[in-house]
Amino acid sequence: MSCAPRPRQQARPGTRLVVPALAVLVVLAAGGCSGEEQQPPDQSSGTGESLAEPSDAPTLEIEPVTRLGRVTGTLARSEARQVEGRVSGIAVQWLTDAYVGGSYPRERFNDSFAGFSRGARAAARSDLRVMSNAGVGARVEQVTPTGMDVEVDLLAVDKHAVGSTAHVLTTFRTDGRSSGRYRVSGRLMLTKDDGRWNVFAYHVTKGGR
Length: 209
Description:
Strand order of the largest sheet: 1-7-6-5-4-3-2
Number of domains: 1
Helix content: 10-25%
Radius of gyration: 18 Å
């Protein structure tokens, strides 16, 4: 009996707001209030200051492109660059641990969220098919990154960064029984908790074949 080929499946987007920091998210999305000073985007590449949280990002086969985007409020350029480096580092760490780093085949991806808050980490673990390669990892022999881009928007109050949004995009190909090309894009929303930047919410889409 012949069977028709199964249609290509697109992974659903993951969206989680898991702590009462929605006010920060709303202000960032709205671009801030009128009269606030906005600094021009910084088009430099690289991860900025060395990452101290959660850990140094591993070396990739490609060089991640990271940059400072919109700054809402008044913030010294040096602090903006430092925060951008830390936030970009968290985003790069997650993209690496969840998708393009490590050895394959593999089945476990629960430890891919070092820079996430406790609530966001629990939410991401329930969205593993979107937030990692859990859906195909056991059938993949190798993952090759082809691009990684992170742009960080910041919200400043009283000349200090209090919120950030990391816009992420990474592409990669897989080889093995589940060979194909994949694209992960979306946003990570971060706030500072006890002096450390943490992801408290996300909106991420993963697609491929």
